[in-house]
Amino acid sequence: MFLLGPVPDLLPDALVSRAGGIASSTIGHMRDHGFAHGLAALTGANRAVGTAFTVRLPDLDSTMLHYAVDRIEPGHVLVIDAGGRTDRACAGAMVAFAALHRGAAAIVVDGMATDLPDLVEFGIPVFARGISPRTTRVLGVEGAMNVPVSVAGAAVEPGMLVIADQDGVAFLSAADFEAVADRAEKAQQIEPGVKEAVLAGKLLSELSGAADLVHQKAVHLS
């Protein structure tokens, strides 16, 4: 059986543009869920923001991926739940080329990729668990498109905001992003000043407030 969910509407340009200036790790200072663990940027293009377009694949069958990639719209991030398996790759040169042709912002796969030289040449950001020469097949067994998926520990709904960079991949609803965006921007604006203060002789623990907290509860050992 193949499950076909509707193609998600693209998130507003203003929201995506704003998210483009915020690192996944900055979001990680403010939330504890919605993060993919163990995925790494595989190509020189290591930063992407967009709208989640999800695909779920069973075991060896990549039929749904080949079908789904032709339905991507510019600004979608192709998010593939391949079960986290590390022995076979589902995303290679032709999938990446087709996704890029359709305007995909990136590919995020809880699994492996292949054809690394081609992926680098194409310049499309790809985030995966690694590289494998062994691949999936078009078998026509089953799969799902634009349904809720699990990606490296994160529950992902179609249409969610994806922020992917060298620190990892974060998935947020538009409302959740709006709730933390102001704090995230302010946090990133503070960092240059903190660096200057450290260079000027200030202690990080004093700047962050950690020193006061330790002193309040400190027990000095003789």
Automatic annotation (TrEMBL):
Q: Could you say which EC number(s) this protein's record lists?
A: 4.1.1.112, 4.1.3.17
A UniProt-annotated Pfam family: RraA-like
Q: Which cofactor does it need?
A: a divalent metal cation
Gene3D superfamilies from the UniProt entry: Ribonuclease E inhibitor RraA/RraA-like (3.50.30.40)
SUPFAM superfamilies documented for this protein:
RraA-like
Q: Report the domain of life of the source organism.
A: Bacteria
The reaction(s) annotated as catalysed by this protein in its Swiss-Prot or TrEMBL entry are:
4-hydroxy-4-methyl-2-oxoglutarate = 2 pyruvate; oxaloacetate + H(+) = pyruvate + CO2
Instruction: Supply the PANTHER family for this chain.
Output: 4-HYDROXY-4-METHYL-2-OXOGLUTARATE ALDOLASE 3-RELATED
| Functional note | Catalyzes the aldol cleavage of 4-hydroxy-4-methyl-2-oxoglutarate (HMG) into 2 molecules of pyruvate. Also contains a secondary oxaloacetate (OAA) decarboxylase activity due to the common pyruvate enolate transition state formed following C-C bond cleavage in the retro-aldol and decarboxylation reactions.
Assembly and partners are described as: Homotrimer.
**What protein family does this chain belong to?**
Belongs to the class II aldolase/RraA-like family.
Protein name as catalogued? Putative 4-hydroxy-4-methyl-2-oxoglutarate aldolase
Q: What is the lineage of its organism?
A: Bacteria, Bacillati, Actinomycetota, Actinomycetes, Micrococcales
